[in-house]
Amino acid sequence: MMRTFLTLSPLQLLNCSPGNSKADPSETVKLRLVNGGSRCAGRVEIHYRGQWGTVHDNVWDLQDATVVCRELGCGTAVSAPGRAHFGEGSGPIVTYNVKCGGTEAALRDCESYQWGHYSLSHCNDAGVICSDHRYPRLISGDSPCSGRLEIQYGENWGTVTLTGI
Prior knowledge:
Order of helices and strands: HEEEHEEEEEE
Helix content: under 10%
Oligomer: single chain
Number of helices: 2
Shape: elongated
């Protein structure tokens, strides 16, 4: 009895087509950065086809991060960490093998594998750190872990005020 074995790549199993794919132009796409301490740093998350998901970091680089920073109004890209640097996301992987030239107005305009909802591991979620990212700070405290909480907005630092306590 002769047996025939079929070998498929992971992309064939996912029914993905490499190359010039972009987001469906009829779909609304939202972008955000999560778990980075500000709106200008974190794991890249995309709202696509009614669900938040992430971007796989395969070939993710500074040019891709540059487009994300520009799209979010966060200055220029400083770093493009991968391997779930900002923690693993949830939901689907929306796209991977993103290849931006660095001049695109939005991530959806970059070449990548077909946009969809893929069930891949989140251990390789892509991240971005933009130049406008600022960590909060504590000042005028008795120790490094106490004091007045301030955040930076543009060039100015302001105090965080809690209400309703």
